[in-house]
């Protein structure tokens, strides 16, 4: 589901608010309540029957990034013909089953396994919700005439896994004046679940905040989890979660909700993958890792326009937003970049180069690979992107997620070291015009020769000395496996706090437990400068110096060496206690040089140290 966007993008944010007001409804909407017999303390009496046995999972949820399909991209698009009966009308049983069959036929053999039903399965086409007598969401009979269990059974029948969706909190329409009982919880009603002042929560304020100091609250979450398990679902997306989802403050802190869901899912005995969404607060990364299997780090990728996505709304955002989160991803929980909509050509709203770049970032960042495309209409190029086994192997392999090894400039390089000693290396040109991009082996930590394989084109490119350079189109990319045949790069360390360095403006030395020498130079703003005064190299040339820095947001600095200044942007490290490392090229003369980091009229990152190669 859609978030409002960042404050720096008011046009997108305004449109998102309108979209979500429609998507989640206003508090005054009258719900349709599905009647249930009074004896419904048993699941079958509440209209729930035991799920048909599904194949046991090969491993625990989130051992690897999941792969599959999600309904939201097509639900949310204005592309002609997708939602002929009004906004979000695409979501129906017939369409879900059609996509299930297409995924089974075209993508299953490549590892795609999940069919995820997003928002609206319990709402009619006017977005009026339905609930059972226990305040749990109930399938809309027009959208899903056979109910949600039948859909899960069909998905399982294709050897796939079924996913479902909920917003966090107790939906306002489910409150029913506080009189609705809680399933399997004698004496508990919806009045017991929430705070007496009916404070709201989630990214749209569409629900009342649940008060987990009352045991009835956990019972309610247990009842929802039990319902999904009995229907046979293998995945739950919990949306509008905070801190995040463009909200902050106590009312929007849903860590207790996520913890309650983790406990409830465990009690069902079914290994349900729990994904939380959206734009989650990185300050709570430990909570998301503890209680969930994956977390959306950004706003929705969909553009809410006449295509599924566009480059600016909001594929390109991920290149700047992902680096801070990279260290948090691994087996058991992954950074979710949202849907991968690269399979439908014109309906995706992207050039071929943009489609490949989109897929490249998702693969190397080890984001879940779930497409929102119409799988019945995949074009040949889109199918080739979604089914490239070498690229999928990068995403599903044992290496850590890639991270930037160069500054976040329009031309940049990301890399990851693989367990076999090779490197996965991606080149990106994010500029609006063609440009050359180079991956220097020095940024990977070695010198000399290396063999290069092009993963998208399944082609060996031979041996390259010191670097590989490619001419890329606007928003273009390449993806390689690099096998070193040279030697380890030797570097000289220069600490920022060294006494012979020069500080200017507000720049000052501060303690830094995470830094290599226990100290750093900070306060580099509005003219603050740090100059390394004794950088010695044996011969003149261009050197890739590694900069260790700390920055709780992306910041830029002029790097001055050899008489020239180049402004570089340093990726967000996630907080002001984590060190990041990227490389910037500097031109040095033989002998003694100075290298200066100048904030100019803005704010630069704090500097820990620079590592200068001994050879260019």
Q: How much of the polypeptide forms β-strand, as a percent range?
A: 25-35%
| Terminal Cα span | 49 Å
How many strand segments?
34
Low-pLDDT runs of 5+ residues are 2-58
What percent of residues adopt helix (DSSP H or I)? 10-25%
Order of the strands making up the biggest sheet: 12-11-10-9-5-3-2-13
In round numbers, the mean pLDDT is 92
Inertia-based shape: globular
Q: C-alpha Rg, in Å?
A: 26 Å
The chain-level structural class is alpha+beta
In words, what does this structure look like?
With about 625 residues, the protein is α+β, with helices and mostly antiparallel strands. About 20% of the residues lie in helices and about 30% in strands. The protein has twelve helices and 34 strands. The strands form nine sheets. An eight-stranded parallel sheet has the order 12-11-10-9-5-3-2-13. It is globular, with a radius of gyration of 26 Å. The two termini are about 50 Å apart.
Please tag this protein with its features.
single chain, about 625 residues, alpha+beta, eight-stranded parallel beta sheet, six-stranded antiparallel beta sheet, 12 helices, 34 strands, about 30% strand, disordered N terminus
SSE map:
Elements: H1 10-24, E1 32-34, E2 67-70, H2 72-76, H3 93-106, E3 114-116, E4 130-132, H4 147-157, E5 161-167, E6 170-171, H5 190-193, E7 200-201, E8 207-208, H6 215-231, E9 235-239, H7 255-268, E10 273-276, H8 285-291, E11 294-296, H9 317-321, E12 334-336, H10 352-364, E13 369-371, H11 380-386, H12 389-396, E14 403-404, E15 411-417, E16 423-429, E17 435-440, E18 446-447, E19 449-454, E20 459-465, E21 467-472, E22 476-484, E23 487-488, E24 491-495, E25 502-504, E26 508-511, E27 519-522, E28 529-537, E29 541-550, E30 555-561, E31 564-570, E32 579-588, E33 591-598, E34 606-613
Parallel strand pairs: 1-4, 2-3, 2-13, 3-5, 5-9, 9-10, 10-11, 11-12
Antiparallel strand pairs: 6-8, 7-8, 14-15, 15-16, 16-22, 17-21, 18-23, 19-20, 19-22, 24-34, 25-28, 26-27, 28-33, 29-32, 29-34, 30-31, 30-33
Helix pairs in contact: 6-7, 7-8, 10-11, 10-12
